[in-house]
Specification:
Shape: globular
Helix content: 40-55%
CATH topology of the domain at 76-243 and 328-395: Rossmann fold
Domain Epoxide hydrolase N-terminal: 15-127
GO molecular function: epoxide hydrolase activity
Keywords: Hydrolase
CATH class of the domain at 76-243 and 328-395: Alpha Beta
Structural class: alpha/beta
Number of helices: 16
Active site: 195, 317, 374
Low-confidence stretches: none
Order of helices and strands: EHHHEEEHEHEHEHHHHHHHEHEHH
Strand content: 5-15%
Pfam family, one: EHN
Length: 400
């Protein structure tokens, strides 16, 4: 397969991986969708503006599509058109974790290692359109990067967090850095992230010398204490702040549930595929600039269901809901001293002004776009790729 040649620098043996869900799991999912009841129509579920969440009509249509038209095997074939690998790495205690990742490896000697990190309710699937752009633009001989797209620990096909102890951002970041070191990228790599991936990227930049530069498309910054600062913002930034405030008022309850009743919501959303559809589907509808195709939403939800990873994917929310902790992006402990780039998309759930983002790191690259939301790599793959390429071109030659 093109782009699958592992660099000679790799210090570990990679196991090629193919997504192959057993047929009985797919049949079970189909039966569960068929048997699952829709809640009765209510005033709230009849509001087409989705003020109170997903609508009855959307759930009914999407259930029918999932049951009658969605073909997981077709999506599996697309997923497997990219090179996949499993890499065993050890944590600080010497315990082994298998990390799954999609990769596009270059044959160029000076290719820049680049890790792309997703969040929740995302997965490695978010970055497949961006990888397609790279495949169209380059050959293995001309690709300027080694691109690594892992499933975060607890997601998809990567090992799950341990049962006997807590697992936090620093634990996940250690394993991800180990992936890059095992691939022979100890001399330097770039990391890019959104959502939870943005927090992991920030932590990796501070803890690991091999992480040389960071590009983000998410950076939640708490409102500054001086109200006069807001008067210095432009109209787009003020609109973003209002979007942030609206999200805090009526869109963030899910995060509180994830962070404070992690076990309970894990059981609830593992009991019915329609429950998972409503919970995750809402986010794909609300957090994007334009509603994604149903096929795209169903692909992601089906991956979560078939891998049974919703309960193991939401552990980072416990950290973010700790009332005694400072949010990762606002915490001076995680100030990015290395070259820091940012892409601003207007339909992000909590857009922060450039001047506020600049307080959190050495911001040397900033680009604001007119379209796009929380799942930027999925929504605007060409735009996101161009930003990443321009950022790397600006900072890589002058790195430490």
């Amino acid at each position: 397969m093109a782009f699958a040649s592992v660099p000679e620098s790799a210090k570990a043996t990679l196991k090629p991986f193919k997504v192959a869900i057993p047929e009985d799991q797919i049949e079970e999912l189909h039966s569960l969708i068929q048997a699952a009841k829709l809640a009765p129509r209510t005033y709230e579920s009849s509001q087409q503006n989705r003020q109170y969440g997903v609508t009855y009509d959307w759930m009914k249509t999407t259930k029918s599509t999932w049951l009658n038209d969605f073909d997981w095997r077709k999506h599996e074939k697309r997923i497997n058109s990219f090179p996949h690998f499993i890499l065993p790495v050890k944590n600080e205690d010497g315990n082994k974790y298998d990390i799954h990742f999609v990769a596009l490896f270059s044959k160029k000697k000076d290719a820049v290692p680049l890790m792309l990190l997703h969040g929740w309710p995302g997965s490695f699937l978010e970055f497949l359109p961006l990888l397609q752009e790279l495949q169209s633009k380059y050959t293995p001989e001309t690709l300027p990067y080694h691109v690594i797209v892992p499933s975060l620990p607890g997601y998809a096909f990567s090992s799950r967090p341990p049962l006997e102890k807590n697992f936090a951002l620093k634990d996940a970041s250690y394993l991800l850095n180990e992936v890059m070191l095992s691939l022979g990228f100890g001399d330097g790599y770039v990391v890019q992230g959104g959502d939870i991936g943005s927090r992991l990227s920030r932590v990796m930049s501070v803890l690991y010398p091999s992480c040389k530069a960071v590009h983000l498309n998410y950076c939640r910054v708490i409102d500054p204490p001086n109200p006069q600062v807001e008067n210095e913002l432009d109209d787009i930034e003020r609109e973003g702040i209002e979007r942030h405030r609206a999200f805090k008022r009526s869109g963030a309850a899910y995060a509180l549930e994830h962070g404070t009743r992690t076990s309970t919501i894990g059981f609830v959303l593992s009991s019915s595929p329609l429950a998972l559809l409503a919970w995750i589907g809402e986010k794909f509808l609300e957090w994007t600039d334009e509603d994604p195709p149903l096929e795209t939403i169903l692909e992601s939800i089906t991956l979560y269901w078939l891998t049974e990873t919703f309960p193991t994917a939401i552990y980072p929310y416990r950290e973010s809901q700790d009332l005694n902790a400072v949010d990762t992006h606002a915490n001076p402990q995680w100030h990015i001293k290395k070259p820091f780039g940012f892409s601003y998309f207007p339909r992000e759930i909590t857009p922060s002004p450039r001047s506020w983002i600049a307080q959190t790191g050495n911001l040397v690259f900033f680009r604001r776009h007119s379209k796009g939301g929380h799942f930027a790599a999925l929504e605007q793959p060409k735009v996101m790729l161009q930003d990443i390429e321009d950022f790397i071109a600006q900072v890589w030659s002058g790195r430490e």
